[in-house]
Design goal:
The complex is a heterodimer of chains A (about 300) and B (about 325).
Chain A lengths: L1 H5 L3 H46 L1 E2 L2 E5 L3 H8 L3 H32 L5 H9 L7 H10 L8 H7 L5 H4 L5 H26 L3 H9 L4 H12 L1 H15 L4 H9 L10 H10 L4 H25 L7
Antiparallel strand pairs in A: 1-2
Chain B lengths: L1 H5 L4 H6 L2 H4 L8 H33 L5 H6 L8 H12 L5 H33 L5 H13 L6 H10 L7 H8 L2 H14 L2 H9 L4 H12 L1 H17 L2 H6 L8 H11 L15 H21 L1 H8 L1 H4 L2
Helix pairs in contact in B: 6-17, 7-10, 7-11, 7-14, 8-11, 11-14, 14-17, 14-18, 16-17
Classes of the chains: A mainly alpha (about 300), B mainly alpha (about 325).
Amino acid sequence: MAQTISLPAPGPAKRRAGRGRAGGRHRAGYAFVSIYLVLLVLFGVVPTVYALYLAFTKENKPWHWAGLSNFLNTGHDFRFVPAFEHIAIYLAIWLGALVVLVLFLALLLHGGVRRLVPAFRFLFYLPGALAGSAAVIVWAFMFDPELSPWHFALSSIFHFSAFPQVIAPGHLPLIFAIIAFWTGAGGWIVVMNGALNNISDELIDSAKIDGANALQLALRVKLPLIKRWVVYMLILAFAAGTQLIVEPTLVASASLGMVSPFWSPNQLAYYLATYNGNFNYAAAISVDLLFVGLMAAALLVFRSKMFELE
Amino acid sequence: MSQVVGKPVARPRAAQAPAPRARGFGPPPRRLPDRRVLTRLVWFVVMLAFTAFFVVPVIWLLIAPTKTDHQLVFEGPFTFGSFRTFLHTWDALYSFQAHEILKWLENSAWYSVVGVALALLCAVPAGYGLALTEFAGRRVLLSITLLVMIMPASALVLPLFLELNVVHLENSGWSVALPFGFFPFGVYLAYIFFSSTIPKELLAAARVDGAGEWGVFLRIALPLARPVVALVGFFAFVSDWTNFFLPYVMFYSDRRYPLPVGLEYLVSQTSAFNPVVGANSPVLRPELAMAALVAIAPVFIVFLFAQRALVTGMLAGATKE
C-alpha cells in the first residue's frame, strides 16, 4: 500500500512511456497469486514465525528472551530421547524396505508381462486409499492372532496368542513400517515405473544386443538411470517419517495404556501443548521437527536438480 | 492365468528364430522357451505373493462387517457372513452415541468441500500467475512453494494450533477447513500444467486483440485447464478427507471430529480392542470395521474410477525432466 501512495507522480509518466502494459501485467501477476499468498502467509509463514517466537521466549512471559532453554529443557525431558530413538529405528526399517522392495517390484514390473503391468500396479496402489487411521485399524485386525487371515503365521511361527503380545514396545517400529509400506509403497512403485518407462527403448535394445540378461539389464542399465528418483523417494519418505503420529496414537488408544502416549516426537509435542499447557516447550519440539522437514526439502529443491525453477 | 495359457501361441516363433545359431552346441533349442515359461511362472508367483500382501487386508475389511464378532473369531477369515448381519452391524454402529457416525461423515464432508474449493480457488490462478506472468518475486515464491510442498504438512500442524489458539479459532470447523485450502502441491501441479501446455504466444496474441489480463485468464487459460482442475481437486480431496493430525489437534469436542479422528475415538471408547472399556457399548470389531469402511468409501470409489488421474499426478514431477 505504501508504495502506491508514495509514488503517484512517476507512475503515470512511466506508463505513458510505453511500459503500461508490462506494469499492468506485473500487477495482474500479483492479483493471480494473491489468494495463494494470503493463505501462504496465514497458514505457512505466520505459524512458523509464531512457533519460533514461542520456542525462544519464556513461558507466560511475552517477549522475555529464553535463549535455547526451551530446547535444552525439552531435550532433557526423559521422553525426548526415546521418542527420537523410536523414530530412528522406524525410519531405518521403513526406508530400507522402501528402497529394496519398491525397486525390486518396480524392476520386476518393468521387465515382466506387459499386459499385466497396469493391473498389478493398480492393486499395489489400492491400499493408498486407506491411508491414515483406517489403515491402522485394518492392521490392528491383521495383527490380532484371534482373527487375522495370517493367524497361522502369527501363532505357529511367531507364537503370539493375543494382540497385546504382538504390539509389545519392541515390535512397534516394525509394525509401523509395515503399515507405512502397505499404504505408501504402491505410490512409489507407480513413480518408479513411470521413471523406468522414460528410459528409451533403443538403449534397452542395444544393451540386449550386447548380451545383457534381464538381471544385468535391471541392475546395470535401468537402476543407474533412475537413481535420482530413489534419492527423491528417500528424502520425501524420511521427511514424512519423522512426523509419525497417526499410527502410534491409534495403537496407544487400542492398547489401553500399554503403549506410551508419547511414543513419537509429534505426540510428545502435542501432549506438552494440550495436557501440560506448555506451548513454549511444544513449540520447541515443533521447531526441531520443522527444521528437519525444511532441511530435507531444501536438500531436494536446491541440491538435487529434481526441480527446475524455470 | 490366461496369459500363461495363452503364451504357447507365441512360442513357436520365438523358438524358430534362434534355432540355427543354437545348433551344434549348448542346450537343444526347445529348452529355451521352456525356461522362459518357467521365468514367467516365477515372475507371476512373486507378483501374486505381493498382491496378496497388498490386497488381502482390503478384502478382509470388505467382508468383516457381514459377520458377527463371534463369527470373525471362529469362522474362516474369508467366509462371507450375511447381508442381514451387515445391516445389523450398521444399526449397531449407527446407535453409537446417538448416530455420531453421521455427524462425523457430515463434518468430513464440509471440511473437505470447503478445503477443496479454497484449494482450487487459490491454486489455479496462482499456478497460472507463476507460469505465465512476470512479477518481482516470482522465482522466490516458486522456491517457497516447492519447499512447503515437499516439507510434510504435519510439520505445520502444531504451529497452526498454537497460532489459531491466539485468535480462539480452535475447536471451530474453520480451523481445519481454512488451512486445508493452503495446498502448495496443487499450486505446483497447476504451475507445471500452465507452463508446459499453454504457449505464451497464444496469450500474447489475445493481448494484441485487446483482451485484458483477466480476460486472457478467464476466456483462454481457464477453459483449457479442466484436466488440472480435476487433478488438483482429486489430490486435495484425498489429502483433506484422510487428514488425521490437524483435526485431532484442533478439536476437543468429539461432535466436531471428521471420520479419521472419529475412528480413533471409537477405538478408545469401545470394547472392540479394550474389553475393559465401554463394556456395554454397541461397538465391537465388526462395527469398527464398518466405521473404517464408511471412512474410506469416498476415497476408495474415487481411486477406482480415477486411476489415470492418479498416475498422471504421481508422475507430475517426472514431466519436468
